[in-house]
Amino acid sequence: MGPEEIVVLVTGGSGLVGQGIKSIIEDERQLDPNTQKEQWIFCGSKDADLRNKTETEALFEKYKPTHVIHLAAMVGGLFHNMAHNLDFFRDNMSINDNVLYASYKYKVKKVVSCLSTCIFPDKVTYPIDETMVHNGPPHTSNYGYSYAKRMIDILNRGYHDQHGCKFTSVIPCNVFGPHDNFSLTSSHVIPALIRRMDDAMNNGDSTFSVWGSGTPLRQFIYSLDIAKLFVWTLRHYDSIEPLILSVDEEDEVSISKAAEAIKKAHGFTGEIIYDTSKADGQYKKTASNKKLRLLYRDFTFTPFEQAIHETVTWFKENREHVRL
Ligand code: NAP
Ligand code: GDP
């Protein structure tokens, strides 16, 4: 980014990833007062319903951002996606069209939007890389979310080809950490297991049920790590081609291993059982971070068990205030 005035608008700034970025920026400011020259604005749905074009443009008119990190989306775990594919498609199509059009209209210099490794084709060769986004239908469980997310890449290419805009996207693997959505109905697996195990311990249960077989594999990234990578992307990544932001392939873990790590962090002494009447979703979506590793060689990811421990501790300390 250049020396001129910089105003970064973070849509979805009240969520898991947005709050992670906020925390990284606050830490930076403690260490280096020079970062004060960037003004960061974190917006949630209370500031503007981004499904609405007029509200979206009013937000851009108010803050006149020079840069945008676009995180806002209808987001949810496997079971929420399975039940709401139409809503995921329509809401996210509207949000993305409005935010990118407003970014064009208000002459934003750079936008970093957010895809996800779960939008890749279901039938694919592994490891998945950035060239494969549009290579076949996504998994049937989350086609609404997946197709809407894929269209961000189409919009980015269109705005670049027709108007010369620098609108790019990143592709995170599964994220978890403080400020996640811990609801019983719409959460992803890690916050779901953290919350449900806390409930089980409060009830004095001797068994704990993990949904599905526990065998699916996932790459999980800590929200504070993905936050650092978003900030780095905004400042240093200058291509409109998507960039996978993921932990290494060898750090992929099974759902059962994740459940065991949560059990250890919670100090739960009961037995974990698997409810195979519930869906497993995609077996795996192993993504390569080779491109990231070439561009940002020395990035260190927080070890999985440490990140789980910190998240469980945060949840216990903040249970009264979190999204349940
Ligand atoms: P999150 O915690 O659920 O946060 C979603 C954010 O979007 C919130 O700030 C929410 O605002 C905002 N939002 C939702 N609907 C909106 C609307 N109609 N108008 C304005 N704002 C709206 O989700 P997250 O996990 O941080 O996700 C951030 C981005 O990362 C998303 O684009 C998601 O697709 C992507 N991603 C997430 C994961 C993951 O595992 N979590 C993995 C890959 C990619 P309020 O809370 O104020 O309503
Ligand atoms: P995905 O990575 O996009 O599939 O979404 P999730 O974060 O929801 O992870 C889904 C995987 O975790 C599936 O294999 C589920 O069977 C498994 N899982 C186990 N228990 C739970 C739970 O309580 N909630 C959720 N969302 N998934 C669970």
Automatic annotation (TrEMBL):
Gene3D superfamilies: NAD(P)-binding Rossmann-like Domain, UDP-galactose 4-epimerase, domain 1. Residues 8-241 form the NAD-dependent epimerase/dehydratase domain. CDD domains: GDP_FS_SDR_e (cd05239). It comes from the Eukaryota. It holds the Pfam family Epimerase. Pathway: Nucleotide-sugar biosynthesis; GDP-L-fucose biosynthesis via de novo pathway; GDP-L-fucose from GDP-alpha-D-mannose: step 2/2. It is an enzyme of class 1 (oxidoreductase). InterPro entries: Epimerase_deHydtase, GDP_fucose/colitose_synth, NAD(P)-bd_dom_sf. Its EC number is 1.1.1.271. Keywords: Isomerase, NADP, Oxidoreductase. One of its GO terms (molecular function) is isomerase activity. SUPFAM superfamilies: NAD(P)-binding Rossmann-fold domains. The keyword Oxidoreductase applies. PANTHER family: GDP-L-FUCOSE SYNTHASE. Belongs to the NAD(P)-dependent epimerase/dehydratase family. Fucose synthase subfamily. Catalyzes the two-step NADP-dependent conversion of GDP-4-dehydro-6-deoxy-D-mannose to GDP-fucose, involving an epimerase and a reductase reaction. This is GDP-L-fucose synthase. It comes from Leptosia nina.
